[in-house]
Amino acid sequence: MQKSLTIIFLIAALGGCTWVQLTSDGEQVEVRAANQVAGCERLGRASSTTMDRLILVDRSSERQQEELCTLARNEAANMGGNAIVATNDVSNGRQQFDVYRCP
After folding, report:
1. Is residue 52 within 8 Å of 9, Cβ to Cβ?
2. Do the beta carbons of residue 84 and residue 72 sit within 8 Å?
3. Most CB atoms closer than 10 Å: which of 8, 33, 56, 74?
4. What is the pLDDT, as a whole number, of residue 6?
5. What is the pTM of this model?
């Protein structure tokens, strides 16, 4: 019984971990709302995917959102963008973002 509780605790603890790191270029990319990119050039779309569960434990939606934004910011920087706007809600560990270059 003790071993089972320990395993469950470790899985739950790992479910809250974030393994995605923001790059130095990604740090320059802002997360914005759609009404904040009116004067910006749309460069394309970034699609992000992360794990929505770890073994049998669902990961927190906040952690998923954080990782998805980090991945999108890193990808946007590689595309030459400096802003992203989410185009849909998180679903099964996936989300899409429009990438913009703003003045």
Report:
1. no
2. yes
3. 74
4. 42
5. 0.76
Q: Where are the domains of the chain?
A: 2-101
Work out the pLDDT band at 61, boundaries 50, 70, 90.
confident
**Largest CA-CA distance found in the chain, in angstroms, rounded:** 60
Both tokens of 29, joined, read 């990319």
E-state strands within 1-102: 30-31, 41-49, 53-54, 57-58, 83-86, 94-101
User: What is the Cα–Cα distance from 63 to 51, expressed in whole angstroms?
Assistant: 10
User: Does residue 63 have a pLDDT over 60?
Assistant: yes
Residue 71 CA to residue 86 CA, distance in Å, equals 12
CA distance 55 to 40: 41
